Amino acid sequence: MSGAPGRSLRPDWTALRAAARDALRFAYAPYSGYAVGAAALADDGRLLTGANVENSAYGVTLCAECSLVSALAMSGGGRLVAFTCSDADGRVIMACGRCRQLLWEHGGADLLVDTPRGVLTMDQVLPQAFGPEDLARVNGGRAAAGPGTAAPAARDLGSEAHGEEPS
Ligand SMILES: [Zn+2]
Hints:
This is Cytidine deaminase. The protein is α+β, with helices and mostly antiparallel strands and 167 residues long.
């Protein structure tokens, strides 16, 4: 355990990559046969891992980053400071486009991302990203209120849907 918060943590990439490879055994990938394991370091020193979880309805498949980010939230939240993911051969692979957005949300521009081209920052692998600050600029900061806060758009959709019920 480290008392040093956030950016002062120095990621042990060897250990992180090993954790990602270990997470591969939890992958559920009967359709593609392409298992992925992911590992990340949180700003309080927590190690998070994830694996992909496929679905017979292919589009509903969850990438390894999905379970990793869920693990982050379910174990107390915080910020990701270093991330890696691995294929079944142990090669470092890149997060897909969708998951780069997930990582941006929970790590921001400074998140260190292990890539086949070396360790890069999140803003190098997702330039000009859309993020919480874009929502805050328009709705006066309500996006910063955190989980559990119903977005105005969701409420509007709810009442609109109710109004369209057949009578
Ligand atoms: Zn993905």
